[in-house]
Design a protein that fits this description.
The structure holds two protein chains of two kinds.
Chain A lengths: L3 E4 L5 H14 L3 E4 L5 H10 L6 H13 L5 E3 L2 E4 L8 H4 L1 H8 L5 E3 L2 E3 L6 H10 L6 H23 L4 H6 L13 E6 L2 H4 L8 H7 L2 E4 L6 H8 L9 H14 L6 E7 L3 H17 L4 E6 L5 H24 L5
Parallel strand pairs in A: 1-2, 1-3, 3-5, 4-6, 7-8, 7-9, 9-10
Helix pairs in contact in A: 1-7, 2-3, 6-7, 11-12, 12-13
Chain B lengths: L2 E2 L6 H12 L11 H10 L6 H15 L4 E5 L10 H11 L5 E5 L6 H12 L4 H28 L8 H15 L3 H16 L10 E7 L1 H5 L7 H7 L2 E5 L3 H14 L6 H6 L11 H13 L4 E7 L3 H17 L2 E7 L5 H32 L1
Parallel strand pairs in B: 1-2, 2-3, 4-5, 4-6, 6-7
Helix pairs in contact in B: 1-6, 2-3, 3-4, 6-8, 6-11, 7-8, 13-14
The chains are: A alpha/beta, B alpha/beta.
The complex binds iron/sulfur cluster (SF4) (2 copies).
């Protein structure tokens, strides 16, 4: 019987699942994913966390509980940094400890630290340590890691081309090609684990698409463009997400034909409190593009969110209509 | 150039000594007050952590008194504090409160830029003078921390209630009227002997409570509603390991010179939090373990709402509580914190500690008789 590794469907799952899955499978393990986020999962997470934790952490706790009893190992790496000189978030750095000390009856946890702040070669070191749980053959681990990286690159390419993680994982491309004359282009900035978890985001992306809106996310912007725009800040942001969010927001501002920007924020997110504020200030200083902040928490009601979203879209369409009605010679 | 800086507890005393000695023109912002917080809350992002809001309030108030340059420290993550300098700059600019920023942190551009900033502030790069002033200021930070620690021990034992607070307040008033590190040092020494000459009940064995948590809210009496003096006046001896001098000496000086740091707390925290995650989470957990081992009756964790590292610590603290059988109370501070509710929680906690101690005493007595 192969060993089973549980991967909670939360936080960095959306960005790294293909890498992790391939790696474990190449080493002969079987990957088991928690069920998609649901009311039960969220409620279980909320119950097991301190009140002050942010929504994504609560959701993550729920996913861990969903896997308890079903797997031999739980994969909860300690993600300190995924990029040079940058951090992720203090809470994510402390996540494995939070889980271990608050939840009961857990299987073995693989909590190897991934810290690429000083050097990206630490990634392989971490992979090796993780792989040792399943194989004692270093060549095998190296090979598995190489293949996993290929899967990761392929995944990033797909994200970049505008396919959403949901569609990638379910292998159904639900891309509707909207009718040209009605389409809007809207940038949606936010943590992957907020945007792409359709329960958490209350189907926001699907709703936008239904409204004939082309969605643009951080993942679709070139790193070089992000870095270029990020230079507008006097001091670089040391959070990976912060740099990418600010850089891509400014990039979108400069892009022809962008109709609006939505910032999706988790309530209680320390990182967002600064990043969103920075993005908003820069946008307001430099442009009159419609901008809205939508805040997600476990109490946000879908109706309220829908109303705000619709009002935002209507406003943009109305503006567009009026702009194009102004005679060129007026 | 008229310089100002943000408040955090008694740090203004060190800042004052530093600027007096260098002959820098400065404004000490009005002490933290409801007004300061009100201003900060109005302009800072709603979900920013409280220290940033108070910073903003300090700067706006200092600007009204003529300040044109702010000094601020920083860092490069992982916590929000590392970005305070930029947030301050942007927010203040947007509200038309133009202040030049001197960020005393290691810049991305390296040493030359750092030296440029020091030069701008001190008017030159006289190494001998700079190191002398820094030494004096570090000494003052240490003396202040010792003075504070002494007040923690004297307060619960004073015979005439209020003696400690009276001496402490008089000292704070006098500091503002002195100038330069040598005068300030003398003042601290005098106040220390005054404290030592208070009538004390030396046989009294007070309950002991350790204060842990985020540095700003644990150190700054305005934000923590005077928790140290409040507990002291309830007859409790408090202790707090995270201090201004500790921060200067352990984090800045020893780090820069690669001297061995006192990492007992990190060792103690390791089974609970395997790594540094930013802020003072490791200190919070580690000191709680050490307090438990030293026989303290309880620990109070204080932190500002949405503080990331302390939320992690708070989630893990119940495990320490269980493993070491120590009581922990968590107090979360935000601009809505009302003093009444806050006091009630502290009083209830103290009652609990008292009952626990009695039970323990009775328990020990029973064991004795049983033998
Ligand atoms: S980045 Fe924000 S949302 Fe994500 S874990 Fe940290 S605080 Fe929570
Ligand atoms: S430690 Fe807490 S209060 Fe300090 S910057 Fe970080 S989040 Fe803010």
């Amino acid at each position: 019987m192969p060993k089973t590794v549980g991967i909670p469907r939360g936080l960095f799952f959306y960005e790294y699942y293909p890498l992790w899955k391939r790696f474990f499978e190449e080493l002969g393990a079987q990957v088991i994913l928690s069920e998609p986020t649901s009311k039960q999962i969220l409620d279980a997470g909320v119950k097991s966390c301190v009140d002050e934790a942010c929504l994504p952490l609560k959701v993550f706790h729920g996913h861990v509980l969903n896997l308890v009893g079903k797997v031999d190992y739980l994969f909860i790496p300690r993600l300190t940094s995924v990029s040079k000189n940058e951090y992720i978030c203090p809470k994510i750095g402390g996540l494995p400890d939070m889980i271990k000390h608050t939840l009961q009856g857990l299987p073995r946890i693989i909590d190897t630290e991934i810290n690429l702040r000083k050097s990206s070669s630490n990634a392989y070191k971490a992979a090796y340590e993780i792989g040792m749980n399943f194989s004692s053959n270093s060549t095998e681990i190296r090979k598995a890691y190489k293949k996993a990286l290929q899967s990761h690159e392929a995944h990033k390419e797909k994200l970049k081309s505008g396919i959403l993680p949901d569609e990638i994982f379910s292998k159904k491309s639900a891309r509707i090609h909207p009718k040209k004359e009605l389409t809007l282009d809207i940038a949606v900035i936010g943590h992957a684990y907020n945007l792409f978890d359709s329960y958490v985001s209350m189907e926001m992306l699907a709703k936008l698409r239904k409204n004939n809106i082309n969605i643009h996310t951080i993942d679709m912007v070139d790193e070089s463009d992000i870095n270029q725009m990020h230079k507008a800040l006097r001091k670089r942001m040391f959070w990976n997400f912060g740099r990418r969010a600010v850089g891509s927001a400014l990039h979108f501002l400069g892009r022809e034909g962008m109709d609006g920007v939505i910032y999706v924020m988790s309530f209680g997110c320390g990182v967002d409190s600064f990043v969103c504020d920075m993005v908003e200030r820069r946008i307001r200083q430099n442009s009159d593009i419609p901008f809205i902040v939508l805040t997600l928490d476990e109490h946000s009601g879908e109706a309220g969110m829908d109303t705000r979203l619709e009002a935002f879209i209507d406003m943009i369409r109305w503006r567009k209509l009026n702009e194009s009605n102004i005679p060129a010679y007026g | 150039m008229k310089v100002t800086f943000p408040h955090m507890g008694n740090t203004y005393i060190c800042a004052k000594a530093l600027m007096d000695d260098f002959g820098i023109d400065y404004v000490i912002p009005p002490f933290n007050s409801k007004k300061t917080l009100e201003i900060g809350t109005k302009y800072a992002p709603e979900l920013a952590c409280l220290p940033l809001k108070i910073n903003i309030g300090n700067f706006v108030q200092a600007h009204r008194q003529g300040a044109d340059t702010m000094i601020i420290t920083g860092g490069c993550g992982p916590c929000r504090f590392g970005y305070y300098s930029e947030m301050n700059r942007e927010i203040l600019k947007d509200i038309g409160c133009e202040l030049d920023v001197i960020a005393l942190e290691w810049p991305d551009q390296g040493l030359p830029e750092f030296l440029r900033r020091v030069k701008k502030l001190t008017g030159g790069l006289n190494v001998v003078k700079i190191s002398r002033v820094l030494k004096d200021v570090t000494q003052i930070a240490k003396m202040m921390d010792d003075f504070e620690r002494l007040s923690f021990r004297v307060r619960p034992r004073e015979v005439h209630k209020g003696d400690t607070d009276r001496i402490y307040k008089a000292f704070l008033n006098k500091v503002l009227k002195t100038a330069g590190s040598s005068e300030i040092k003398k003042l601290i020494r005098d106040a220390t002997s005054e404290l030592l000459s208070i009538d004390m009940d030396r046989d009294f064995v007070p309950l002991k409570v350790g204060i842990v948590g985020e540095i700003y809210t644990t150190i700054d009496p305005f934000t923590n509603n005077n928790i140290a003096s409040k507990l002291g006046n309830m007859g409790i001896e408090v202790d707090r390991q995270v201090t201004v001098s500790g921060w200067i000496i352990e984090h800045i000086i020893k780090n820069a010179l690669h001297l061995p740091r006192d990492l007992r707390y990190a060792e103690a925290a390791r089974p609970y939090l395997g790594t540094m995650i930013g802020g003072h989470a490791q200190e919070t957990l580690g000191h709680t373990v050490l307090y438990a081992k030293e026989g303290y009756d309880g620990v109070i964790q204080v932190y500002p709402l949405t503080c990331m590292p302390e939320i992690v610590a708070e989630s893990i603290l119940p495990a320490v509580e269980r493993d070491y059988d120590i009581s922990v109370l968590t107090l979360i501070i935000d601009e809505m914190t009302g003093e009444a509710g806050y006091d009630t929680r502290i009083e209830a906690f103290v009652d609990l500690l008292k009952r626990r101690r009695e039970r323990k005493n009775v328990g020990e007595a029973t064991v004795l008789f049983g033998n």
